[in-house]
Amino acid sequence: MKSYTTAAAALMAAGVVRATSGTFDVLTMNVAGLPSVLQSNDESGDKTTNSELIGTYFAKYGYDIINVQEDFNYHSYIYSTDNHAYRTATSGGAAIGSGLNTLANFDWVDFTRVGWDDCSNDSDYDCLTPKGFTFMRMMVADGVHIDIYNLHADAGTTNADEAARTSNIQQVADYIDTYSTGNAVIVMGDTNSRYTRTADNIAVFTSQNGLTDAFVQLERAGVVPATLTICDNPSLINTCETVDKIFYRGSRVFSLNATLFNYESSKFVQTNGSTLSDHNPITVKFEWINEGLFSQSNYSGGPHGDWFSDLASLPEKPVVSKLVFRGNKRLDSVGVVLSTGTSLTHGGTGGTEASLTLATGEYWTSAKFCTGQYSNRTRNFYVLATTSKGRTVTAGTSTSDCTTFTAPTGWQIVGYMGQDGDEIDQVSLIYAPQY
């Protein structure tokens, strides 16, 4: 285990209930939930009974985050025997829903379903149900947020299938660049891709998004497969490649590292030893560590507008010299000016400006945000910023739905992440030690 910096240790100071490290595990599994009259998945047994068993195993092994694909017509049977506290609602059976769902021990915000821009019926009739990917921002600990993606890409190997799948993977990669800039990310699901197929572009998650394939890292010593290997089901080895994959990256708020990779097929079997799905379920165990450079608050507001993040723009030891807000009926913009002269501003130009210049040795330490509904969307209506010397500045109009975020002892507020347009739809605060 790494030693922590003094700043990281400050997160555990008296009165602060914020962990600086932790572990969790994930599972991805194609649950073979198409109606048996359409596809048997080459599995024996009754699909209803098999689905109930899958849910039973989810509960028994207690994986922290589970992404499932092909969760179509037997969805309710899986959920009937599972006990995870947080679960997405089904989007419908085959031909209606995407078959993508998440079960977790952690809560999330900003859940979104996205359909593919392209699909192919050339060999596997992928266009007959609205496949795609899902996105959610999951809180695995206080202030520790990870963007979780679940996907099911186009199947088949014809030219049309390959073109559709290439488009699918690129669509997710571009979405990550747009909505997950600066954030920790885990992508897992049925990619229907292999490194050994030259037409597949699965490596784009690494080259474009900076993600690591846990399989390549832990089972291949960082070397992608050059020779096709087909896994048995259940697989008794971890070095063979499947189309089900788990990619990840950390952020400047915390490092994220995969410590275990395993095919879990032998845990998901019927009473006679037969498998429950034609896919090997995959688990990965992760460790996260905040090493004291930055930390983050939870979120205020709703998932609307364009994503922004100051994490990439902040120097290693930021100092805020001025707070700048705009507001009237609602909170139009938020901003800070750093001691270097760099201005970090988000939102629109409406409302009236309210600012506060900080004295030497004065830090922004607390912020109260109030939210409300406007045009059927949750937005931030008000901010009250308080410094270490007790001085305040406000903008916008207060409501009855307010949350106060306070920097940990010895830390300061130095920037923002969230979503905006003409106003501030959603905001989270970035903390750094007081320098």
Automatic annotation (TrEMBL):
Q: Which GO terms describe its biological process?
A: phosphatidylinositol dephosphorylation
The Jacalin-type lectin domain, residue ranges: 305-433
Matches recorded under Pfam families: Exo_endo_phos2 (PF22669), Jacalin (PF01419)
| Entry keyword Iron-sulfur | no
Top-rank taxon: Eukaryota
- Keyword list, A-Z: Endonuclease, Exonuclease, Hydrolase, Nuclease, Signal
Signal peptide from the UniProt entry: 1-19
User: What does the record give under GO molecular function?
Assistant: endonuclease activity; exonuclease activity; phosphatase activity; sphingomyelin phosphodiesterase activity
- Protein name listed in UniProt: Endonuclease exonuclease phosphatase family protein
